[in-house]
Write a structure and sequence with these properties.
five-stranded mixed beta sheet, disordered N terminus, 15% helix, three-stranded antiparallel beta sheet, 237 residues
Length: 237
């Protein structure tokens, strides 16, 4: 019982003592204001930009400027007079006629340049023909050329004999004008057959006085006789 009383007294005194003590004044606690931390703004992730395919630029063709050409005035000097007498031409004694037998290369050059002459020459692949270039110091109203077609006597006898005569007429020419004349026979072309023995005449009479057409070739076959000279003679009337 005593123990219980003592215990109660101790509890009472203890509670009295607790209430008598002054409560310590609580120190004001300094609340620190939390600074707002700025969150780093997330950078927008760079999206891959869409590829832009450039369209090929089509250049518009600008209108072409018209080129104006100025006409250049060229003074034409008079062509020199042709050399006379012509190179390689022959002239019979006491005559104003010039003649020349062209070479094969010269003839080919003339045939390629003159369509009419080339057309006439085609028959010479099968017939005996000759060719001569002629000119005169004076003008001629028309020409005639007498010639002889000659060849071997036979296939076994090579003696050259005349086969016939050929008369060729040609148009008129101006002074010193050179023309090429084909002498075309109707004699079949054979080895060693040729046209020679030329007699060339420059006429001053009207062309109507010619006994045959101008131009023309008239061939007359004959009985073989001795071969005439191959040198040309000329007549002027």
């Amino acid at each position: 019982m005593l123990a219980i009383i003592v215990a109660v007294a101790m509890i009472a005194s203890a509670s009295t003592a607790f209430s008598a003590t002054t409560k310590p004044t609580p120190k004001p606690t300094l609340k620190t204001t939390a600074k707002a931390t700025t969150k780093p703004t997330p950078k927008p992730s760079a999206k891959p930009s869409p590829k832009v395919t450039k369209k090929p630029t089509v250049k518009k063709s600008s209108p072409k400027k018209k080129t104006v050409y100025k006409r250049k005035v060229v003074k034409v000097s008079p062509s020199p007079s042709p050399k006379w007498p012509p190179s390689g031409f022959k002239i019979p004694v006491n005559s104003d006629i010039y003649y020349r037998i062209p070479t094969g290369d010269e003839l080919l050059g003339e045939l390629s340049a003159a369509a009419t002459l080339s057309e006439q020459f085609k028959v010479c692949a099968k017939l005996a023909c000759g060719v001569v270039k002629i000119a005169s110091i004076t003008s001629c109203t028309w020409w005639d050329i007498m010639s002889t077609v000659s060849g071997p006597l036979s296939a076994t006898d090579s003696t050259i004999v005349p086969y016939g005569t050929l008369t060729t007429t040609a148009k008129g020419t101006n002074p010193k004008q050179i023309i090429t004349v084909l002498l075309v026979s109707t004699e079949p072309l054979k080895p060693k057959v040729y046209v020679g023995g030329l007699v060339i005449s420059c006429h001053h009479t009207p062309a109507t006085s010619s006994p045959q057409k101008i131009p023309s070739n008239v061939y007359t076959a004959n009985t073989p006789v001795p071969t005439p000279s191959d040198s040309a003679t000329t007549n002027t009337n």
